[in-house]
Amino acid sequence: MRVSRVQAEENRQAVINVSGRLFREHGFDGIGLKDLMKGAGLTQGAFYKQFTSKEDLAAQASKRAMESAGQRWAAAVAANPDDPLGAVLGFYLSMEHSQEKMDGCPIAALGSDAARQGTSVKDSFEAGIKTHLEALGSMLPGPDGEPTNGKAMAILSTMLGALTLSRVVNDPELAQSFLTSAAHHIRETVAT
């Protein structure tokens, strides 16, 4: 049975969304096309009608995951516009976010995997990282228009490192300590 163009596009978007979640859970090489398509409720045969390769899908799923992460940052800021940095730190450096491996930060979930992927996957991550840096830079006080790029990079690196470390330890108190310490350190850095 032939699928309409509208249905084909809906299927394509479903595959991209599901793959973004499954890649974050299993890694790019930890899940095959059959299981990715099954996760979207489709057969493997439909894959090649929609994507040129698994890397093509990985790049599109990475782009979508990074866009979703940016939307979460924006939602946090919108919920607390008086303290945008505090809002982002509050959700990003939380145990809830630490435990959201399928829906959480794609950089923490796939950063080391992305480094071993092709240019198109790295481009998706790079675009998202630049968006995060711009968002952080806009939240930082800069004397007389002084650029805040370096500070934003250090803050993003601290946030990402703390989240990653919180995910790889078994001790929940240690995990929470990484998150709390990073938030405290960032606040001190911004204040100086």
From TrEMBL:
InterPro entries: Homeodomain-like_sf (IPR009057), HTH_TetR (IPR001647), Tet_transcr_reg_TetR-rel_C_sf (IPR036271)
Limits of the HTH tetR-type domain: 9-69
DNA-binding region positions on the chain: 32-51
The entry's keywords: DNA-binding, Transcription, Transcription regulation
PROSITE patterns: HTH_TETR_2
Name used for this protein in its record: TetR/AcrR family transcriptional regulator
Originating organism: Labrys neptuniae
